[in-house]
Amino acid sequence: MTEDLLGRHRAVLPDWLALYYEDPLEITHGEGRYVWDSEGNKYLDFFGGILTTMTAHALPEVTKAVSEQAGRIIHSSTLYLNRPMVEMAERISQLSGIPDARVFFTTSGTEANDTALLLATTYRRSNTILAMRNSYHGRSFSAVGITGNRGWSPTSLSPLQTLYVHGGVRTRGPYASLSDDDFIAACVDDLQDLLGHTRPPAALIAEPIQGVGGFTSPPDGLYAAFREVLHERGILWIADEVQTGWGRTGDHFWGWQAHDQNGPPDILTFAKGIGNGMSIGGVVARAEIMNCLDSNSISTFGGTQITMAAGLANLSYLLEHDLQGNARRVGGLLIERLRAVAAQVPGVREVRGRGLMLGVELVKPGTDEADPQTASAVLEAARAEGLLLGKGGGHNTSALRIAPPLSLTVAEAEEGAAILEHALRSTIQ
Length: 429
Prior knowledge:
alpha/beta; 4-stranded mixed sheet; globular; 16% strand; 15 strands
């Protein structure tokens, strides 16, 4: 059955549409932190649909909200008043930390970042964008143009002039050997030097923790130090929270809050987990920035009633059950468990991240050379034992990405860690 579906997939879908596993699987249903494939195999899901299934699979509160809304009206577009959209915008505006905030809904993180770039370049009358090395911001033409990860950048053409800044990866690059304070100082010096060689940029866009880049991050406070430099020159700060938002990092509700010494970002983008599988993205910005466009615009499917119903139910569940606190507690146990394993496995270069957003970077034993073949082999071995993981990393996709639903229990974390430990030990010689 799966082999037939794979053949049909290849006959009608693009060759560049990536599939995990040598024998791709069809996921048919899920419950809690587990999913099942079309052959009846059960898996503990440590990737959550690329961080989209934020709370749990088939969460009753969300499925009920979606079902009830579908029985009333599914969609009407932004040309009409939409109560669920207004209610969702009110909640996100308050949670964002941005003063006098306005919210615009999209259908994806790519579209959210595309909108943020439109706002920033219009507001600043500049098409120059600062981005981080090893970054990823989506698959639209403009988002690809600012992506700093070669594996996800299929063209060098772009409507934007993009300049890349040091700092998104703490343990690689020319400043890796420095202390945290010296690392930040060196990156700030690099930014100041870069700004002396270019026309005034519109904005810096940065993921607080780089997602596709392998869950890498700078020391806390780097973007606050950057913001001081940017603010002096009127340059905006866009926090790409598509993967880090909604408490996933455990320590903070938003990733930017690890860098909040000089205030919130000017623009914040979100998507992924807030819909728990429904297509919700969006942009939050100060009113003067959001309202800078001088022509009409709408979002045909952004903020539609059924996705907003899902988002409201999901957000309520997240807050009422303190899933941010759970991510901090369970994620803290999980990362320590994995670091203990890594200390005994020669091919694990680093276990990093925070909350339930963890990366395990693999290298060829005894070297600092990325080992994507072993990363793929570990992915296969873990799947064979009932664990689904993700992959990423700017150095040849050699990092395992761990991002389960935020309701993960201690027992499930231990189950997943045990499977991953066995997969690492059996694969890395």
